[in-house]
Amino acid sequence: MADSHLNYDNPLIGRYASKAMAERWGPLRKFRTWRRLWLALAESQAELGLLADDRKTPRIQPAQLQELREHLDDIHFERADFYEKKLRHDVMAHIHALGEVAPRGREIVHLGATSCFVTDNTDLLLMRESLDDILGKLASLIDSLAKFAATWKSEPSLGFTHFQPAQLTTVGKRATLWCYDLILDLHDLEHRRENLKFRGAKGTTGTQASFLALFHGDHAKVRELDRLVSKKMGFDRTLAVTGQTYTRKLDSQILDALSGLGQSLHKWGNDLRLLAHRQEIDEPFEADQVGSSAMAYKRNPMRAERLCSLSRFLMNLPAMSAQTVATQWFERTLDDSAIRRLYIPQAFLAADACLKLALNVANGLVVNRAVIARNVQEQLPYMATENLMMAAVAKGQDRQEVHEAVRKHSHVVTAGLKDNSMTSAELITRLKGEALFSGVDFAGEMAPIRYVGRSPEQVEEFLAAEVEPIREKYCKLLGQKGEVSI
């Protein structure tokens, strides 16, 4: 039996998230980033003229830097594992492992730094990169739903309040509601991404005391070190102050935004499941797909159900990050470490999995026009009564007499519906037989499009005002489809 079948496999990696997101949060990427941070720190210290204790000799030699560059990706995991078991410290373990392949470079690794220099800065780098990935997928999903809304902007459909039939809307107008929630999520995530700053080089408790000692009290060089390291790692801004760690409030804010995305996708998934039950809209269903092991006829909306399930997981992660923020003592406590290894990667993996699935669904929705029209016709006779009343009054009929006729026939037909002796169309047949409604254009008054209000125009206005700017900004990332392999 293969080892892969012996141990627990996180379903987010094995089944749901993309390969790119899984690799981004994997060990290889993390430890490669650690080494690049150590190199950036050493390069910056050298560029700022860091001197040895004699204050004459350069502390960092070009050959040492070159050796580090040559071994950035030369990671011997078995040696790192050996040292971690011995030292009970992952950062020190990887310093030793790097030192074995770059013995001269080892002397300049981690000068003045604390473990959070590599761990926290790496998390910030990976979160920013993951946010970019999420934003691209989300923009593509918005684009797909917007196209769907445009296609079906004038297709009358029953609206529901309290999941009871209400005034008509259109298939496309309802899609704008899903789309708008996602646009709000996009803006929230953009804000978090654009305001994400680097921890930089802050020292053991955030005071930069170790770096100040290395630079013999030169405050300007310490400030410049912070800026240089951050710039080398792709950040143009650093956090104004930190403890040993960057404030865990940043994690909480980002997870809150990802949770918001989960909320929107869960709501959309629920709506699709309800529409599938009414047979009005179907999610993609493959030729060989099996809905039930017992009931061979079933066409379950498994994609929407899975979307709700994964979204629920994503929605609930912020509770843990909030507790981490609240329980950090002074400059840092280590009880943030183990739990952050769980919820930060899994938040992005879950968001990625949700979007991957949502893209697949959005690009394969099937609208059953005949069913939608039939459902509209079942309710339209009741909805049309007010318009029919006004048309009769406009012809000179007494408003109260017309109202009484509608009331009387409506109650009779409603009773007939309940014992299955009538259909709702009987109401129109009965009203047509009333002299009070002589001359009323029943066909014109019964056209469903008369009851959708400004739905088509609202769709067009929404697309122009809200969606087009997003399409323009993310034009190179649109068109993602999302594949579901399991």
UniProtKB/TrEMBL annotation:
Transmembrane regions: none
InterPro entries with a match to the protein in the record: AdenyloSucc_lyase_C, Fumarate_lyase_CS, Fumarate_lyase_fam, Fumarate_lyase_N, L-Aspartase-like, Pur_lyase
Class of this enzyme: lyase
Catalytic activity line of the entry: (2S)-2-[5-amino-1-(5-phospho-beta-D-ribosyl)imidazole-4-carboxamido]succinate = 5-amino-1-(5-phospho-beta-D-ribosyl)imidazole-4-carboxamide + fumarate; N(6)-(1,2-dicarboxyethyl)-AMP = fumarate + AMP
Gene3D superfamilies xrefs: 1.10.275.60, Fumarase/aspartase (C-terminal domain), Fumarase/aspartase (Central domain)
Annotated GO CC locations: cytosol
Source domain of life: Bacteria
Protein family (similarity comment): Belongs to the lyase 1 family. Adenylosuccinate lyase subfamily.
PANTHER family in the record: ADENYLOSUCCINATE LYASE
NCBIfam families: purB
Protein name: Adenylosuccinate lyase
Organism: Telmatocola sphagniphila
